[in-house]
Amino acid sequence: MLRIHETAVELVAEVMPLLEMIERKDPDLARQGRRAVMSTPLNIAEGGEQPGKRRALHYRIAMGSAREAWSVMRVAHAARYIGAPSAEITNKLNHVIGTLHRCVVRSG
Length: 108
Hints:
By secondary structure, the chain is mainly alpha-helical. It has a single domain (4-106), classed as Up-down Bundle (de novo design (two linked rop proteins)), CATH 1.20.1440.60. The protein contains four helices and no strands. α1 runs antiparallel to α2 (27-48) and α2 packs antiparallel against α3 (52-78).
C-alpha cells in the first residue's frame, strides 16, 4: 500500500471538524465533502491490492476524491461557511493529490 494512505487517513480526522461547521449551513455540501475525504484513503487501500490498470483506476478515483474534498473546503470558505483551510490541511491535500497524480501517470 502507498505510504500516502496514512496521510489521507490523517486528513479525514483533520477535515471532519470543518465539515461539521459546513453542515450547519449546508448539509448537502458537508455530505459531499465527507464522502470525498473518506473515499480517498479507501480507494488508495483498494488500489494497492489490484494489478496494473485496476490499480491505476483506484488511484485515479482517490485523486479525484481528494480534489473534490479540497474543492469542498474552498467552496465552503468562499461561501463564508468556514475560515480558510489551514496550511497543514492544504499541504497534506496537495501532497496526496500530487503523489496520486504521479502514480497514475507512471501507470500509463
